[in-house]
Amino acid sequence: MVSWVTSLKTPNNMLINLSDRHHAFEASFNFRDIGGYPSASGKKVRWGQYYRAGRQDRMTEGDLGALKKLKIRTQIDLRKPEEIHDQGKGPLSDMGAAHHNIPVIPDGGTDTLSRLVGDTGISGKRYLGYLEFGPDAWVRLFDLFSNASTGPLVLHCTAGKDRTGVSTAFLLSVLGVERDWIEADYQLTNRDVERQVNFIEEHIGLPEGMSREDMMRAAGVPEDAMGDFLDGIEERWGGPLEYLQSIGISDEAFNSVRANYLE
Question: 3 in a domain, yes or no?
């Protein structure tokens, strides 16, 4: 069940202040900075280097001005090519950002995913199913994360919660961020749902047969999904780092990622 909380703490009672990291664009949602999270190394994640987000193709003129100030150099687009065809790439290429399409789910893969894991809806089991499409997406992601010239970057899918959430969990794990923080960062998606649904109702209209409550649920995330995903990774591989090592990502790459995103 999705919980619509107004304040968010980790199980260790650590408060995450959304206002510090959320960029409340008028027509782009779930756009936030992952800076400030503490690493086990004693360092913290750099601010202003990695933004996780949903689609940007509906942005207003005011949004575009605010986006330009972030000086994004790289757009990592996790959507399927068919989604990009329908929605467009968004404005970042026109602002000079390099666009990299790294589909976590290939064209036609949604049906394959449902056959693999069943009709689970948003769940940790479904996220684990992403890994069944092979290692290429994660290898390509870490090639970019380990390159100091790519930041600041925006990593996004359509909603900025599922594919983006799993990718961000992998990065934060490599940076030594505790699991409590990773799960809490994932749950911040639910803090921007009402604003997003209001926009859809006002400017686009709810999909046929879908109530506002249905849309709120679809736009949010279950509180346990990321925890279930991380549990599954630990059970099968020993943890996120061990999974990434098993697909060929080296300690040298991990060290470069940490140098780029920690301070």
Answer: no
